[in-house]
Amino acid sequence: MSKQLVSSCMALMVLFSVLLISPKTEAQQRCTKVIAPETQCLLLNCREECFKTLNGFGTCVENPPGSENYTCNCMYNCPRPPPPPADDHVK
């Protein structure tokens, strides 16, 4: 019984230490852009235009909800801001 308890505790300690050591990742932010809001959305054209211009995924969405008007909404990865300049104190 005590051997099982010790081995269970050791396994939990190893698991927690791996979780603490693993690097933190940042998820890529997603942006949305309405493409040609004045025209009726055609799904094939919407997806093609979205992929060509923003390398994203286009879908037709009711606008306003409950109407028969659809706009092309393009979801894509937001551009990442440039990294801050490195402080170089060596001259």
UniProtKB/TrEMBL annotation:
InterPro entries: DEFL (IPR010851)
A biological process from GO: killing of cells of another organism
Tree of life domain: Eukaryota
Listed name of the protein: Knottin scorpion toxin-like domain-containing protein
Transmembrane regions listed in the UniProt entry: none
Lineage: Eukaryota, Viridiplantae, Streptophyta, Embryophyta, Tracheophyta
Protein keywords: Antimicrobial, Disulfide bond, Fungicide, Plant defense, Signal
Organism: Brassica campestris (Field mustard)
Signal peptide: 1-27
